[in-house]
Every structure is written in C-alpha cells, then in structure tokens.
Design a protein that fits this description.
Layout (H helix, E strand, L loop, with lengths): L16 H4 L4 H44 L2 H53 L1
Helix pairs in contact: 2-3
Amino acid sequence: MAGTCRNKNKRFNIGAKKANGDGDEDDTEGEECNVVVWDTLSTSFKMAQAVLDQNRELIQKVNENHQSKIPDNLVKNVGLIREINGNISKVIKIYSDLSVNFSENVRQRKKDREREGGKQALLN
C-alpha cells in the first residue's frame, strides 16, 4: 500500500459530501483512504481465516488418525503436521505483510497531512 490513497485504482466516495459540496475535500479523501485501509485489512483477515480453517480440518484429521492407532494413519500424520506447520508460516506471512502495509499507510497519511498543513500555512 505504498503511496498515497489518491494514487489507488480503487477509490470510493463515502457519502454525498463531495457530490453535494457539503464537506471539504480533505475529509472525503481521508474517508476514501479509510475504505482502502479497511478493505486491505478485511482481505488479509479473510485470507488468514481461510488458512486457519484449513488447519482446523487438518488437526481434526490428525486427531482421528491418532485415535485410530492404525500404523498407516499415524504415518500420514507426519505429512499432515508438516502441512499444518506450512500453513502457520502462511498466516505469519499474511499478518506480517498486513502490519507492514498498515504502518506504511499510516506513515504516508501523516506525511500527506503535514504537507497539506504546510500548503495551508503558505496560503494564509
């Protein structure tokens, strides 16, 4: 999510402020930015949840295999446990990327506000 929200392809106009001229453009821009941030958060959480749901099913299968005490099923558990571990790594990556993207967005918005504040000071 590097860059400003103005540069995003996916933009939303929240409410009718901008269309009606009832609000200032900075508020609408901030709301559009918030939609992009929330969309990114939502997408990341859905991806993580899908992997966690898959792990739940794998863990259930591992438990069934363990309870059966059938040697072949116990051998299958090795591969299932490896898959669970791989999925945990995927979830860590998703959350790590989410954290980086969110931090970059917050930093960029802070820079944008500081820049806008400097422009306003020059105009006054």
